[in-house]
Amino acid sequence: MPNQQHVSSALNRLIVGAEQPFDLHALLQSTSRTLSNLDFEHQHEVQRVERGKTDPALKRQIIDNLKRRHRERRQPYVALIAELQSHLSTAVSDDLQETG
Fold first, then answer.
1. Distance between CA atoms of 80 and 85, rounded to whole angstroms?
2. How does DSSP assign 46-82, residue by residue?
3. Residue 39 has what DSSP assignment?
4. Does the predicted model carry a pTM greater than 0.90?
5. Of the candidates 17, 13, 1, which has an alpha carbon nearest to the alpha carbon of residue 82?
6. 27-67: per-residue pLDDT in tens?
7. Cα dihedral angle (51, 52, 58, 63), rounded to 10 degrees?
């Protein structure tokens, strides 16, 4: 998946190139909040369309488009969260090995 590789390489540059300690937990929390906001916004848009007086066939088409756009918008954040979690578990394993 090329997009995930891009996220991974960008994240590695951030972490490895950081002159100060890099806070993966803070970035994970921030990214999770962004993803939650996208999900909330999407749900609000879908509900607004469902409550509208638009033709049911047109409503279905609009909702399908909203869902497609939502998946496209959230995919980079999901990939980033997976990458952050991977880095965090590696960091925890490294810390445990150093202290053990």
1. 9
2. HHHHHHS-S-HHHHHHHHHHHHHHHHHHHHHHHHHHH
3. H
4. no
5. 1
6. 999 999 999 999 999 999 999 999 999 999 999 999 999 99
7. -40
